[in-house]
Design a protein that fits this description.
Length: 520
């Protein structure tokens, strides 16, 4: 049968002109979304680092891309004395380098209120300020309270909101109230349960949004799409075909100005209890019955429930810890952790961790997951790498007398947002030689629009009431229960000093020789 004209043209385009890789496939329903209702966003901690560095640029970007509702109010609150105009000036300063052509319109939605978070009167005043602003901007009484304040204040602020009547919702669903809580959610299982008890005194679980900006990263969401919207990978995604999984989230940044917090947290609380666990969950979870918040979060929970406990008395078989010393990072000389402002000169706080984790279930029995995170490493890199098993019969290895590299799949989260599959091919020529080649997909391929920043996604999801990318309390508790024994072991200075290995800033962590010495 002869090809019709259109098919022939397509064939010529794809095959003869060799453009298969450049086929433009239009996105399907990528912008179709739920409407965002008018609302007010109250940011407690509006003068702090998180607000200026993350929230302000995200909100302005959402405004520029017309993702915010037409009627909205952003009310900043903190201890500092500031007028509305000063607050607007501070936010504008935080937007340096962005397109400010629509700044004046955006600024007309920004307000500030000086507050003492320990005083109930301050919350009653907040209530009447909100009512006035809601009347002026027509935002109804839909309210989001964002806790960008020290974690020690989360419980009491939630209680103050409740006492001032700000946690309630209209019975007919015409007005809602939501609470956004930043990590850390407690510092161990017990404190996480206590915090949860305090939050629930006045808020229901469906009103509480425990943010994890890693879950909201485009490429992390893409892990689920990659796994469950393709038929060819999932059959391989198990212990029969996968040898090991490496999940890495390392950065070149040091502790910056957060020593007070980091000295208490260290890498295990700062990165493992939250972001690393969520990366593990999206890699290891089963497909949910439907792609909705609760079924997806149920599957996260099942992964966390299946974590093989780490030996309390000797976690060193599964754990490697390090602390950075001075070195050169990206061409710049930097001090060691102990010389950073605010850090104790004899601090044993770990800034690097590698944890070998097993998930005891049918899919993953005995497949090790290596989770690595650390500060002041050679470069910023977050990726999930799936190492497949070697071929069952080493046909070419015998001919070549050399190891054959098993296939691996790299899910690049940041800074390069990509998916690579590496496999063996024949090197051209008369002799039998092999070479590894990589099939690349770059996230920006055939896409020119902006990529939503994680905080933008989290904010918009919260405005839409979608909790899929937020932590549920049962997951929080299971992760603390898993890490608590390790943290308790490390709370003993003698144990910690034995476990903690130095590494040079700008390196890839403690070197292998040191690790071997420490382990013998
Ligand atoms: N910064 C980041 O990148 C990240 C932060 N987080 C979390 O976000 C939260 C905020 O962090 P960050 O912005 O870095 O902290 P900062 O210390 O920079 O800011 C704290 C803010 O809270 C306000 N505040 C503190 N105490 C009171 C009080 N009694 N009454 C009223 N306001 C008060 C401060 O106001 P004032 O300055 O006026 O005193 C300031 O605006 C923390 O829980 C942190 O763990 C989570 C992930 C990343
Ligand atoms: O939550 C945190 O994350 C950042 C790393 O986030 P990223 O999006 O830049 O990868 C980390 O630097 C910080 O210590 C931690 O609190």
């Amino acid at each position: 049968m002869a090809l019709d004209r259109e098919s022939l043209d397509t064939y010529v385009d794809l095959m003869v002109k060799g453009q298969a890789a450049d086929v433009k496939i239009s996105p399907r329903a990528c912008v179709a979304d739920r409407p965002v209702e008018p609302c007010s966003l109250v940011i407690f901690g509006a003068s702090g680092d998180l607000t200026t560095r993350k929230l302000a640029p995200s909100l302005y970007n959402l405004y520029l891309s017309e993702a915010l509702p037409e009627s909205f109010v952003i009310l900043g609150a903190a201890r500092s004395e500031m007028s509305h105009e000063q607050f607007q000036g501070m936010i504008k300063h935080a937007l340096e380098g962005m397109d400010l052509t629509r700044w004046d319109e955006f600024a007309s939605h920004l307000y500030y209120k000086q507050m003492d978070l320990r005083s109930i009167d301050s919350f009653h005043e907040l209530s009447s300020t909100l009512e006035k602003l809601e009347g002026k901007h027509g935002t109804r009484a839909n309210r989001i309270f964002y806790l960008a304040i020290p974690p020690s204040a989360y419980g009491s602020v939630a209680a103050m909101l409740g006492k001032a009547g700000l946690s309630g919702e209209a019975g007919d669903g015409s007005a809602w109230s939501r609470l956004v809580v930043e990590k850390p959610f407690g510092h161990d299982l017990k404190s996480a349960q206590e915090l949860d008890r305090q939050l629930h005194e006045y808020f229901n679980e469906y009103q509480i949004f425990r943010i994890d900006h890693y879950l909201a990263k485009e490429t992390v969401q893409n892990v689920l799409i990659f796994r469950f919207a393709n038929a060819i990978f999932e059959p391989l995604w198990n212990r029969m075909f996968i040898d090991r999984v490496r999940i890495t989230a390392v950065e070149s940044l040091g502790v910056e100005k957060r020593a007070a917090y980091y000295e208490e947290a260290g890498v295990l609380r700062d990165m493992f209890q939250n972001h690393m666990m969520q990366l593990l969950a999206v890699t290891a979870m089963e497909p949910p019955a439907v792609f909705e918040a609760e079924p997806v979060r149920d599957e996260h929970v099942k992964v966390f429930r299946s974590l093989r406990p780490i030996e309390r008395d000797d976690p060193s078989k599964n754990l490697l810890l390090g602390q950075y010393g001075p070195g050169v990072v990206e061409g710049k000389r930097v001090p060691g952790y102990r010389e950073e402002p605010g850090v104790k000169p004899d601090s044993f706080t770990p800034t690097f961790g590698m944890l070998k984790v097993f998930i005891d279930n049918w899919r993953w029995q005995d497949v090790p997951f290596y989770l690595t995170s650390g500060k002041r490493l050679a470069k910023k890199l977050t990726e999930i790498v799936i190492y497949f098993k070697n071929v069952p019969h080493l046909l070419f290895q015998k001919v070549l007398d050399e190891d054959i590299i098993a296939n691996f799949l790299t899910l690049g989260i940041q800074p390069e947002e990509k998916i690579n599959l590496t496999f063996e091919t024949k090197y051209p020529g008369a002799k039998v030689c092999l070479r590894s080649v990589t099939m690349d997909f770059n996230y920006q391929q055939n896409y020119e629009g902006p990529i939503l920043d994680a905080y933008e996604k989290a904010l918009i999801d919260c405005m839409q009431g979608d909790q899929m990318l937020f932590w549920r309390q049962d997951s929080v508790e299971l992760c603390w229960a898993f890490l608590d024994p390790v943290l308790q072991h490390c709370a003993d200075c003698d144990n910690l000093s034995r476990l903690l290995l130095p590494y040079e800033a700008g390196s890839w962590g403690p070197d292998a020789a040191q690790v071997r010495i420490a382990r013998t």
